[in-house]
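Quick one:
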Amino acid sequence: MSSQCQLTDQLELLVIQVEPVRVSWDESNGSHIEEGVLVGLDASQGQEWLTLKSTEQHYRIALSEVIQLTRLRDNGQVIPFKDD
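Output:
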């Protein structure tokens, strides 16, 4: 589980720094890709959630649904979520 802890630490750092990111995730109605800033990371209902603020709205995304998260700074560093 140490990789999950490292991932959570990375995400908390991105939230604190209000980093611009691109997140792609799956939901029951299909895949989504949005750009914005991470403004929250919390746990409820037995899983962890990211809050992404885009120009239009806020998205609350379950970490288990995230496919890929890319930092838009630093040459678009990809933070891996799922092993293919």
